[in-house]
Fold this sequence. Notes:
Elements: H1 3-33, E1 36-43, H2 51-55, H3 70-83, E2 88-98, E3 103-112, E4 121-128, H4 132-147, E5 150-159, E6 166-174
Antiparallel strand pairs: 1-3, 2-3, 4-6, 5-6
Amino acid sequence: MEQKTKDILVASGIILGSAIFGYVAIRLIRRKMSVVYVKGGYSVPANVPNRADALHSFERRKSDGFGGRMSTKIKEALQKMYKQGINPEVTELKVNVDSANYKVTWEAKLEPSKDGKAYIGIMTFGSAGSGADARALGQEKRIKEIVGGENYKLVLDFKNPKGIYIRQYFYQYTRDEFPSH
Length: 181
């Protein structure tokens, strides 16, 4: 093979390698830039009735509207990502319940969906105290009917490790109005 042909092959290999490297690097940078953290928390005031119930009011209670609006905040961030052309999902959810001080903090990690579906909302249901497991599971069907989403995917099955026993489920879901990009 003559030198000119070898030089062309080497140059072509370098160009192709650079293009592949650039493509991979851009995808990694976009993925890293697409990670969103949503944080929140709330404290249950001493004068709120049924404080143990209020402690696990991650969204809001029907009785008095008290709650942390967690689902609302995460849903807004998911929809913002969707509007940027990303099929989002909640990949991690951390919840800390301080029963002694009636305080809750949480953090959700949102990333591009690994299965290609656009998870556009999150919903939660649960119960506190004795018998909480059975009461929480008994709410699932009704809550899913109210929310009306599809492709429900469990994000977190939360059991409070100390203090007031809480069993809480967190599911993300898709909606027909938000088809995958």
